[in-house]
Amino acid sequence: MAEARAGGCCPPMDLFRSEAMQLVQLIIPIESAHQTVSNLGDLGLIQFKDLNADKSPFQRTYAAQIKKFGEMARKLRFFREQMVKAGITPLTKPGAKSDIDVDDLEVKLGELEAELVEMNANNEKLQRSYNELVEYKLVLNKVWLSFLLWPSDNHSTVSIVEKLGLLIVFRYVMAGEFFSSALRNASALQKELESQQTGEESLDTPLLLDREILNDPSKQVKLGFITGLVPKEKSMPFERIIFRATRGNVYIKLAAVEEPVVDPVSGEKVEKNVFVVFYSGEKAKTKILKICEAFGANRYPFTEDFGKQILMISEVSGRISEMKAAIDAGLIHRSHLLQTIGDQFVQWNTLVRNEKSIYHTLNMLSLDVTKKCLVAEGWSPVFGSKQIQDALQRAAFDSNSQVGTIFQVLHTTELPPTYFCTNKFTSAFQDIVDAYGVAKYQEANPGVFTIVTFPFLFAIMFGDWGHGICLLLAALIFIIREKKLSGQKLGDITEMTFGGRYVILMMALFSIYTGVIYNEFFSVPFELFAPSAYACRDLSCRDATTAGLIKVLPTYPFGVDPVWHGSRSELPFLNSLKMKMSILIGVAQMNLGIILSYFNAIYFKNSLNIWFQFIPQLIFLNSLFGYLSLLIIVKWSTGSQADLYHVMIYMFLSPTDELGENQLFPRQKTVQLVLLLLALVSVPWMLLPKPFLLKMQHKARHQGESYTPLQSTEESLQVETNHDSHGHEEFEFSEVFVHQMIHTIEFVLGAVSNTASYLRLWALSLAHSELSSVFFEKVLLLAWGYNNILILLVGAIVFIFVTVGVLLVMETLSAFLHALRLHWVEFQNKFYEGDGYKFYPFSFGSVNYEDE
Predict the structure, then answer these.
(1) Which residue ranges traverse the bilayer (predicted)?
(2) CA 492, CA 160: separation in Å to the nearest integer?
């Protein structure tokens, strides 16, 4: 549980150790069970254990109730979906809390769902009919226009077509030009008929002409036609398939509809074409109908009678108006119903969620043999005992139970969950630690130190107080608007950034601090605290190194003297400074990790870890890298020119050689020999004694002991959480020895690699500084040198974009990840096991939060 949800539930915070936990047992009368669990859900201080783990969900006592509330939750999800579609937002703040009967709510939700489903079905039918009428009107208008332009002797034309026995022309026009082309086609076919009647054939004679039908008028088939609309994208395949299926014995005309129309089936806007297909014979009609069905073409009837056409258009227009009015009235009624639901939706949804979670919890309780009581077990923090007992008494009083709930603490050797009572500031830092692993019960928590060390290591790599101010402004925007943003649905990246707003705030503040030390503001130095301590000897030393400078004032009081920036010796100076500073910080943090392992051993009363883990590790690390840190400080203090690389290398290769000019203090060679000897001794000190001593302890503990007295809760928990306890299983010396050997090798090699890993502080700090300098000099200053306002404006825009995109986004993410690695690997592996599990109490607040 990252954050205490019940205000004021926690004592003064102690993040160094997790809260003391206890296993409690509740014997609850069955008549007050519901009210008891409800009160405990409001309190949020008990993590219930599942005492029915061997039963399936359907075999549990309250399976029917869970099914009922699951159905109610489904109805509420349906209401939410409908409100989202209608653009209605539920009231986020429900009105005054009123007692709602669950059974009445179930009936009401059922009635509302039935009414809404019926309204949706009616609206869907009306909308489909309306869309069909709109399409029908389009077809009538197009085809009716062609009949207006049809010549008066159409009967003679039809008779010619019938004599041909073929499909002729449907005069479907968008304008007179379209009709003229159709008329020319008819004339051409008429001439073709005349030539065939005189026995002449031409190259244009149709291949599928049936001469038998031509010569025998009794076998001629009357033409039919089909009208409708087909999607525009399917028009060409539609026409081609019909032509091939009927072997060319059809005549098809297509014309585009000017605007997309709503398809009655899909309900989406689609671009369509009006089509007319002339055919002869029932077989051709059957084929055409199947093809229309396959292509999703909507067919509509049409008559050749001119008077009926006018009546049909008028009737369809009237029905469209009536349908539109009915749809509008239905939508208004539906909107009012959804608004009524939205006014109480949050209250209903909260009630159903809480009730469902209550019965889920009741299903974790075991029913005693008398079936009059429920037995519950769970973990709770020790400080919450009084509040839990008060909640149990209120539940017994509210449910008019004659017997109260029995509350008792159980003695157990089971490992309790880990619970840190955090707030909105510390929870983000604790999440950083928990992402590596949850602390074992009452193990030393690195989250306390992470609050300071994490933003500080980040700031070392991101040292620029101009960039730090930009980060600070971004963090302040999130913090000022946190009440508004916490209740909104944010995107994944925005939500993650908002959750870490206080981490960003600390990173920004530390970046400003280290930026002032580096004396960099977007790579520009400033004389913030005093003038520079150095000046030129003469006018010719503008591009000189420090050899051309003389010290004329006291040393610059804080941070790097601004005169170093821009000089030819800037890079060697800052490289040396940041590299050595990285080693000092790294060795200090690793020593802190080893010291925390001592506090763990003291707390869990494990003397073996003190003598054979803490002491040799501390000696080994400081004999080598602690000594290196000391040499760095001495060199800075004395101004010596000693080569520390040479000192450290020949400390191993030739420890007895004289140091010469590399000697920093008297008897340095003797000190180095002693430290080297201690480092060599500490390795077998870590490796050999501990496995043998563990074996001896195991034999002594089990020799002649069949029974042992019961221990107190605190003692039993401490024995269980002992990191090296092997008393509950068979002792395997080979496994213990190999395990110890792995840990020893890992620490010895890790001491070297981890120290080198802290050099990333120097590398990323240098990279950030150089990138910032390049962007400033090669973009902004270069644009400034042209003395052109347009070029300057473009340069400023480019500088802003690269600063934000590269330095404030990519560099921030890079420094964040490197600081994360330094904490997880270099710092926490010295003492932190992180194999515990979190405390997840039953709480209505967390139930609603997870559902959101």
Answers:
(1) 456-480, 501-518, 581-602, 614-634, 670-688, 789-810
(2) 73
